[in-house]
Write a structure and sequence with these properties.
The protein contains 7 helices and 7 strands, in the order αβαβααβαβββαβα. The protein has 179 residues and is an alpha/beta fold. It has a 7-stranded parallel β-sheet, with helices on both faces. Helix 2 runs parallel beside helix 3 (68-74) and helix 2 (38-50) runs parallel beside helix 7 (162-177). The chain is globular and about 50 Å long. The mean pLDDT is 96.
Length: 179
């Protein structure tokens, strides 16, 4: 096996904030439905930046930038990724439908599509709704969605942290939509 050397930050050729703002984004919006943890919100911003997500919709009790606790995990991504606040998640989903997005709740539901079976079309725009750390996506919001996506799990726990879920989901969408 060859020699492995960690790259220096200067060798990674990261986008500047201006380059990020001007770059072509993934046709994907992340909707946070009543997410309470500032660390989780920040982590979703950071992951959304990593995968060039179009924007984040922050709904209900979900905090909005700027906030020092959010910044600890976002590491500045709260300034690169566009975001919008909605008092009600239902209003966010309605707006996305009006704009032609296919909206998926990330939730364990009857009739959900397992993530490993999901087929995306590169000519469509998508939104994913991630729910509260304890209650998940509200049923009223699930009812408005075009479908549910479930992450297969094999252990004794039946849920993942919302920021971990975001990482898994956003990677899968990026992998499929960036083709």
């Amino acid at each position: 096996m060859g020699t492995l050397r960690k790259l220096k930050v200067t060798e990674m050729h990261r986008l500047t904030v201006d380059e990020f703002k001007e770059s072509r984004k993934l046709p994907l919006v992340v909707v946070l439905d009543e997410v309470r943890s500032l660390h989780n919100i920040g982590a979703v911003f950071r992951t959304s930046d990593a995968f060039l997500v179009n924007s984040i919709y922050l709904c209900g009790i979900t905090a909005t930038p700027p906030h020092p606790e959010m910044h600890k995990t976002a590491l500045g991504a709260e300034y690169t990724v566009d975001w919008k606040y909605f008092k009600n998640t239902e209003d966010a989903v309605n707006e996305l439908h009006t704009m032609g997005y296919t909206v998926f709740a990330i939730e364990q539901c009857e009739g959900s599509t397992m993530l490993d079976k999901l087929v995306l079309k590169t000519d469509k725009r998508y939104a994913v709704v991630l729910g509260n750390e304890v209650k998940g996506v509200k049923q009223e919001v699930v009812d408005m969605c075009d479908g549910c996506i479930e992450i297969p799990q094999f252990g004794t726990k039946h849920s993942l942290n919302v920021s971990v879920t975001a990482g898994i989901i956003l990677w899968e969408f990026a992998k499929e939509l960036a083709k």
